[in-house]
Amino acid sequence: MRWDEAEAVLFDLDGVLTPTAAVHMRAWELMFRGYFSTHGIEPPYTDEDYFAHVDGRPRYDGVRATLASRGVRLPEGLPGDPPGTPTVCGLGNTKNAMVNEVLEREGVEPYPGSVRVVDDLERRGVAMAVVSSSRNTPAVLGAAGLAGRFGVVVDGTVAAAEHLPGKPAPDTFLRAASRLGVPPARAVVVEDAVSGVAAGRAGGFGLVVGVDRGAGADVLIDSGADVVVQDLAELLA
């Protein structure tokens, strides 16, 4: 399916609409480097860990996958565990607290090219949704001035409430398409994460667009992207 044939476009948030991926990436780095250093876990956390184990996944899944890569297992804990609690949930909540601090202090500007694409789709009457594993999605959309631009938002809170598995499973994207009333074959998934691209391919979507914000074009293609761009404005050409 061509871009201009789409009846709906489903956007990931971090790294696609807003550069909050950099904020999340920094928060993960601070949290894991501190935890690894304190507990003598080797090798140290790197950016490669972010792209391999964290990017695009639900927060606790990212914690679990990164720890597993070092042969470490922690008690699952509870979603209400305070930051600093030595559980999967506690580490995830530590990272989340760091993200919120940065958002409140600095705000976030959406990518100009992404706003141009959203404006164009809105003019053409194409249905749009945001599909993100982040529970911070409403706060980020508000901080970026994008609240109210999307007919459907399926985020980490919705996924938890509806028991939807996170990316790379396609369920959150499929749920968003269903809410918009558009079959997957007539919808586009736009993702910067390997897990998100894989989810779009697994869901049978008509077009999967990868946005290369650091994962690498070849990696995104190998994961299921039909086309890779560095800026969404390239889709308007």
UniProtKB/TrEMBL annotation:
GO terms for molecular function: beta-phosphoglucomutase activity; metal ion binding. It holds the Pfam family Hydrolase. Keywords: Carbohydrate metabolism, Isomerase, Magnesium, Metal-binding, Phosphoprotein. InterPro entries: B-phosphoglucomutase_hydrolase, Beta-PGM-like, HAD-like_sf, HAD-SF_hydro_IA, HAD_sf, PGP-like_dom2. Its cofactor is Mg(2+). It catalyses: beta-D-glucose 1-phosphate = beta-D-glucose 6-phosphate. Its EC number is 5.4.2.6. Belongs to the HAD-like hydrolase superfamily. CbbY/CbbZ/Gph/YieH family. PANTHER family: 6-PHOSPHOGLUCONATE PHOSPHATASE, HEXITOL PHOSPHATASE B. This is Beta-phosphoglucomutase. It comes from Cellulomonas carbonis T26.
